[in-house]
Design a protein that fits this description.
There is one protein chain. Helices cover about 65% and strands about 15% of the residues. It has five helices and three strands, in the order ααβααββα. It is an alpha+beta fold. Strands 1-3-2 form a three-stranded antiparallel sheet.
Length: about 90
Amino acid sequence: MRIYEYMEREARLFSVLSDPLRLSILKSLASKRGCVSELQARTGKAQPNISQHLRVLRDFGLVCARKEGRKVCYSVCKPQLKKLLALAKKIA
């Protein structure tokens, strides 16, 4: 991969992380995995909104989904993301 392609991917990462609700979802999942209804309760946002943001996070590879019975549970699938979130909190 050329350096410009890496930079594009990094820029896309920051774009994905730029939404406050996505950050809230990631921070919640960094501490405890959860399904959409649990994330809805934690964030106070509507289920379709949560699902839409989870799709963006999953498409970029930041969260993983696992079916558990009738529910789909999500978790952070890159441990480095937890460090990035902690660093962002210190910088902001």
